[in-house]
Structures are given as structure tokens and as C-alpha cells.
Design brief:
Length: 281
Amino acid sequence: MSKPVAKKNVWRYILGAIVLSVLGMGTYGYFTFHPLLSFNPTDVPPITANPVQLDQIFAVSRFRSDAGHDYSMNSWDGETCRSMKNYFNWSQNSANNMPVRSHPTPGHPNINVYAPFDGTITANVAEQTPIGTQVHIAAAKNPAFYVRLFHIDLLPSLHVGSKVKSGELVGTIGPMDGMDIAYEAPLVTGRMVYLSIFQYMTPEAFAPYAAMGYKPSDFILTKQQADNAGYQCDNGQFVHTPAPGYPYGNPLEGYVQLRENPYAGLMNQENVNQGTRGNMH
């Protein structure tokens, strides 16, 4: 159960909420922040639709793994140096050591991305790695909670303020591309609650994974497991031990491999190998 807020902290919380709201207006041009006074797991809106076209996904990273980059900024419970989101595939099309959008072919169509619940698009912003945009969808059931869909091409018909339904097509990525999904909620203290979409998927949404023999816990590391792994970070990036043929580390480390990678031959190229670690922000 949520604990009552001490009276002496009320003004601090109110000030924090105002600051977060102003930052949201300035950054996104839309009121996106509904910060929580405290976190109660029973308040989390369920993920009612699988957000990525699963038949074209060959690997999914584990929540709290060392895939990609450190994504634990201002974690509400003090977790650091771990990826508090899930990656789907990884970029295997690059130029000058940078990922670039791949294009569909008759045999390799784009990968569809869907709304994970009923909600509102509250942001569509440029990515640090310039491939696609970062789209935020706030849950209709509780807009304090939202998903970030990284590096997708939002449908032209959708924009900030658009209402979307669970399972509705919202965008695509290229056939040789990867994307990542974070599920989070801000606290009025400025801290961030990070969640895995797999922890809150309904049985219906998880059914395609269950049909392949997986459980939600297969895609989530516990805090203790991540602590025991002893990850090392340097300026927001994981420090990986080189592996034979992979100077940036084994690309499958931190991932669950669902099926054979259709572009595995490209992984021998160093510039592509860098992308397989998921180092897109």
C-alpha cells in the first residue's frame, strides 16, 4: 500500500510536480508529466498488446541486462549501471560506423510497432542517434505511466495528442533494424520508476511468447541477478570484454534469442558489430 506523504514534504512534492510539468511543456510542447507521489504496483496499467511484430523479432534483451547502454538514470530505488528497458533485435545496417534506417524488400518487409495499451501520444522527439524518433504513449488508465518507443518511424497520420488503441499500428522500423522499449513513471521527487513491459503483460498479450515456450521472467533479470553480474559502466556505456570475432563483446550477451538471426552474416563486420550491442540512445 502507498504510504501517506508527511505534511512537511507536501510543498517539496508540489514544487517538484510544477517543475516536471514545466519541463514537459518546454521539451515536448504537450503536458506529458503526471508525477506520482509514491509508487504502488497495483496502479500500473497492464500491457494489453504485444508492441512489436513478433514474427520478425529474433532476439529480445533482458530487463536489467548489460545490452545497449546504461539506462538507469535517477532510478527511484538507486539501481545503477544496467539497462532498465528491453531491446528488440539490433541495428544491422550502418554507414560510417553509425546505424542507418534499412529499407524493406519483397522478402524482408518493415517491422510493425503497435500501441501497448489505450493511450495518448505525448511526445515525438529526435533521437541522439539519428534514426527514427522517440515516441511516448501515456496510458489512458493512468497517464503517469508511459512507454517510450525508441527509434521508430511514426505513422504520418499520428502526432502528439493523437489517441491510440491497444494493438493499433503506430509506426515501423526497417527489416534490419532494432528498437527498444522503456516503461516508466516519474515521481514528484524527480526520481524515475522503471518497469519491464514483460512484467505487466496480460496473458493475452504474452501469448505469442508463451506459444514459443517462454515465461515473462525469461525477459527480466532481478535486481539481485543484475547486482551479482557486476556490470561496469564508463560514461553511460557498458564496458564489455572482447569476444573472439567481436571486439565490442558477444552480441547475444544479455539477450534471449528467439530464432535464428536472418542477417547473421553481417555480424562479422566491425561497424555492424558495434550496433549489435544496441548502443543506440
